[in-house]
Amino acid sequence: MAVTVAVVTVAVGVLAPGTAAADVTVPLPDGRIEGPGVTITSVGERAIISPSLASNGAGRTSWVTGNVTAEVETPEGMSVPTTVR
What we know:
- This protein is an alpha+beta fold.
- About 15% of the residues lie in helices and about 40% in strands.
- The chain is built from one helix and four strands.
- Strands 1, 2, 3 and 4 form a four-stranded antiparallel sheet that branches.
- β2 and β3 (about 40-50) form a beta hairpin.
- The longest helix has 14 residues, at about 1-15.
């Protein structure tokens, strides 16, 4: 009887939902992509991953932040926006 109670207690502990976990910050690698007339560079990117708000393990929430710049070659006399938000 004592062995059965211990096994049931362990099984319930494993199947019970866990407590809330903290966010995890993941650094992302810097990158550079070049094409005809354009170069896109990303630096300092990171993702912040949060656990499921429903505590069911089926979803995640994440935010991504960093600096991305684009260098664009244009024909002479043509202007392009300098800041995009």
